Amino acid sequence: MWTELIPNEVWWCNDFLKPDTYERVMQGFAESNISVLDGRTRKHAVGETFYNYNVVKLPVRDDKLLVAEVFDKLNQVIGKQGDELLDSSTELGYLQFFAKSFNPDSRYDLHAESRAMFGKYVFVNYLSDEETGELVFPSEQGAEEFLSTHPDNRKGWEETKSTCAKEKNPIRYIGPLTIKPRKNACALFITGVAHYVNPITDTGTRPSLSGWPYASDAYVEWYKRGAQ
Question: Which CATH number is 89's domain given?
Fold first, then answer.
């Protein structure tokens, strides 16, 4: 069952995957290699905000039963919002569904996604219980407090606000709301909101499934062109 944490913005679902699906996914994580995505060495389409996390080389997009199960759950919210339902039978791009993990070196500073590139929704299916590595939606004052303690993030955040404003989808501050990772729970929220992810300090690795299910090819095409 989904709970609406912030009206028309953030939803939360416990027991997201079926138990046997969860075990199958976790087994896949244990057997998969990773690669590190580090914002210091990659181009930024929206704003140069820092991030660091692991992409897990688990072929989740090829697991049709998993995709159908995940999309069916997401559609329970998306349908009520009046949006086009996700079709699990279509070929998915990387951004739409992937596996990732966070470790103590990982973090994601204050940012927001461009709806033009990433689509309307983003989801994170947590696969473990953590007391740190929280997903934080700050108020505007809370965002300013974050930038005061992370001044290197300010320039990128201003770039992000400018990008979203040009797309006529200005940044929204919907907090304060803090979500702790919980085993087999899922957060679904609307793009264009200010948020960040705290570092993990209490465990070695936090696995998750994630994606922007309405993402177009715009980001991939932009990256391949070598745009700045």
Answer: 2.60.120.620
- 207: how many CB neighbours lie within 10 A of its CB? 22
Q: pTM higher than 0.90, yes or no?
A: yes
Beta strand pairing status for 98-102 and 107-111?
A: unpaired
What is the tally of structural domains in the chain? 1
- Taking only Cα atoms into account, the Rg of the chain, rounded to an integer number of angstroms, comes to 17
pLDDT tens over the chain, length 228 residues = 999 999 999 999 999 999 999 999 999 999 999 888 766 665 556 667 777 888 999 999 999 999 999 999 999 999 999 999 999 999 999 899 999 999 888 889 999 998 988 999 999 999 999 999 999 999 999 999 999 999 999 999 999 999 999 999 999 999 999 999 999 999 999 999 999 999 888 767 889 999 999 997 766 665 556 544
Helix (H) or strand (E) holding 36: strand 34-38
Q: 33-42 burial, b if ≥16 CB within 10 A, otherwise e?
A: ebeeeebeee
The runs of H, that is alpha helices, within the chain are 19-31, 64-78, 115-118, 140-149, 154-166, 218-225
Enclosing domain of residue 40? 2-225
